[in-house]
Design a protein that fits this description.
The structure holds two protein chains of two kinds. By secondary structure, chain A is an all-alpha fold. Chain A has 14 helices and no strands. Chain B is built from 13 helices and two strands. In chain B, α3 runs parallel beside α7, α3 packs across α12 and α4 crosses α7. The chains are: A mainly alpha, B mainly alpha.
């Protein structure tokens, strides 16, 4: 009995330690952001709770950086990336899971092979293609958004995720619906889509997180600041307030509030969903 | 059941995805290879066929070798820790104790936050007069230029990647741990095995496929590292954090040297291909089987 109590205390001790470590970088940013100009942010020993807590850094950085615009841009890009992924993946997965047709093997291995093509190794031609299609912000806002969205409109992970979901549904459902005179499209829309809602939710959430945090691609294609997404805008803080760590910290904290709220609301999907493989590391 | 659909129906469902995969995966893939065989140096609008010359130049470039070396160094720093540490955390979380849900959420937070913010947060921790150097000072060592010292910069960046990955791999392990039969532990308990050996002898062999999976996917993502480096060091100091992806980025988008960027991309493609093939054929073969 005593041995068990000691063991449990030990486990709690480690888990609390790891939890604190995982929050620490953010706690330290918050602490720095709350310090006024007269407080030394480099003090030895470090001051965790500022003597005079001030929100002036948050207000100051909010006034200079169009965070709402960046939120809006990130949201538009993430939202449409998610929608396209849901539609395209769930469509493509249906025949791959359920139908027999000529070239199935070939198409299946084509889709599979894209998993092995990392974006980082083909980003240069993707950029040239996007330029050729005029999908950059110099051709207007909509083109700019499309350039951020379309290259990520579908990926093989999503297709395979949905295929697994369809495979777990009993075939009899569709057969019965067909005998009742339901068309293929309606079988997909009225039976398969509702029955795979949990997988669709997982795909949506992980696509959203990925798109929301993406930096490399928007960093390459965006030239117009009015189309900046959050990660690009936040990275810009460093240049704008070069040594003003109070502002950089405040801006960084502001930028993560939406995704933290989103995560806390959706946490049960994260815990159950990650392992379905919707994420492209 | 055989023909409740017309012959063309499957293709209708597949077309949207195939169009996008073609434009944004297949064409760029072949285009990368084509670009790597052309010489743009005389006239960027009228490249000439160069055969394997770009590869010859690439492999004579010291900077590229440095980036290759750094990439593998980074992989060897990151992968063992991301394989073992999240497993330990997951084993601790797989017990019947209170507050598990809260711990999971807290440990997972770095996964959902953008890597840009995480990198900025660490840059602040790493500053010369920063909080990590304060701890170093207490221990009695000299302050370290975490991101400015060529000996430390790559390690410092690796710490950020590890930090951001722990929650992600922990979740993968947690799912695997649920499948370990409880009676195996009871048998070990009866034998009087201590906690460490219990897990070494029971848990580890049972989740071996998952461990292998984590090794391959964390290797692939280590080979693709970019953003942490861009935000924290820009490849410096003295190229000590320049990885292959960073090298490609610099060649392509800063120096407009398309040929070398493409040649380096092909090398990267080839390296990642090896890991992907291992992963797909050995560890995730169920998901990817027709």
């Amino acid at each position: 009995m005593i041995k068990k109590i000691i063991q449990k205390t030990g486990i709690h001790f480690f888990l609390i330690l790891i939890s604190i470590l995982s929050l620490f970088p953010f706690i330290w940013l918050i602490s720095t952001a709350l310090k006024g100009p007269e407080e030394n942010i480099f003090a030895y020993p470090p001051i965790f709770i500022p003597k005079d807590i001030t929100f002036n850094n948050f207000i100051g950085v909010w006034k200079q950086i169009p965070f709402l615009l960046y939120f809006f841009n990130s949201f538009i890009v993430a939202f449409f990336t998610v929608m396209l992924n849901l539609i395209f993946s769930s469509l493509a997965a249906y025949p791959l899971a359920r139908m027999e047709f000529q070239g199935k093997k070939l198409i299946f291995s084509m889709v599979l092979s894209t998993i092995m093509i990392p974006f980082q190794a083909v980003m240069l031609p993707v950029y040239l293609i996007v330029l050729k299609l005029h999908l950059v912000d110099s051709y207007g806002m909509v083109n700019g958004y499309l350039g951020l969205i379309l290259p990520f409109a579908v990926n093989a992970f999503g297709i395979f995720l949905m295929r697994q979901a369809y495979l777990s549904i009993p075939k009899e459902m569709e057969e019965a619906a067909f005998i009742d005179g339901c068309s293929v499209f309606n079988i997909w829309r009225k039976i398969l889509i509702p029955m795979t809602a949990p997988s669709l939710a997982v795909l949506a959430i992980f696509t959203f997180i990925g798109s929301w945090g993406e930096f490399l691609w928007p960093g390459i294609v965006l030239t117009n600041k009015t189309l900046y997404t959050l990660p690009v805008g936040v990275n810009d803080l460093q240049g704008m307030f070069s040594a003003n760590w109070r502002y950089i910290a405040a801006g960084s904290i502001i930028s993560i509030i939406p995704i933290i709220i989103f995560f806390i609301c959706m946490q049960k999907y994260f815990v159950s969903g990650q392992n379905e493989g919707a994420v492209k590391g | 059941m055989n023909s409740y659909y017309k012959k063309f129906i499957p293709y209708l469902f597949l077309i949207p995805s195939l169009v996008f995969l073609t434009i944004f995966f297949f064409i760029p893939f072949f285009e990368t290879i084509v670009l790597s065989l052309k010489d743009y140096s005389n006239d960027i609008y009228n490249p000439v066929f160069a055969g394997l010359n770009n590869y010859k130049i690439l492999f004579q470039t010291k900077e590229f070798y440095t980036s290759l070396k750094n990439t593998f160094l980074f992989l060897f720093l990151v992968v063992p820790i991301l394989t073992i540490f999240p497993m330990i955390v997951a084993i601790l979380l797989n017990q019947k104790i209170k507050g598990i849900g809260l711990y999971k959420v807290l440990i997972y937070i770095p996964v959902v936050v953008s890597i840009v913010v995480v990198a900025i947060a660490f840059k602040w921790l790493y500053t010369t007069q920063g909080i990590i150097n304060y701890v170093i000072d207490i221990i009695g060592a000299k302050p370290i230029g975490w991101l400015t010292d060529t000996r430390w910069a790559l390690i410092s960046v690796a710490v950020v990647t590890i930090y951001k990955g722990i929650g992600y791999y922990m979740m993968i392990y947690l799912a695997a741990l649920m499948s370990v039969p409880k009676d195996l532990y009871e048998a070990a308990d009866v034998d009087g095995a201590n906690v460490f050996f219990k897990h070494l002898n029971v848990t580890v062999p049972h989740i071996m496929p998952t461990i292998a999976l984590v090794v391959t996917i964390s290797s692939i993502s280590a080979l693709k590292v970019f953003t942490e480096i861009y935000v924290m060091t820009k490849g410096g100091p003295l190229n000590s954090t320049k990885t292959v992806v960073y090298y490609i980025y610099e060649r392509a988008f800063e120096n407009l040297d398309l040929s070398l960027a493409a040649a380096a991309s092909v090398v990267l493609l080839f390296i990642i291909l090896i890991f992907s093939v291992i992963n797909i054929t050995f560890f995730e073969n169920k998901r990817y089987k027709l």
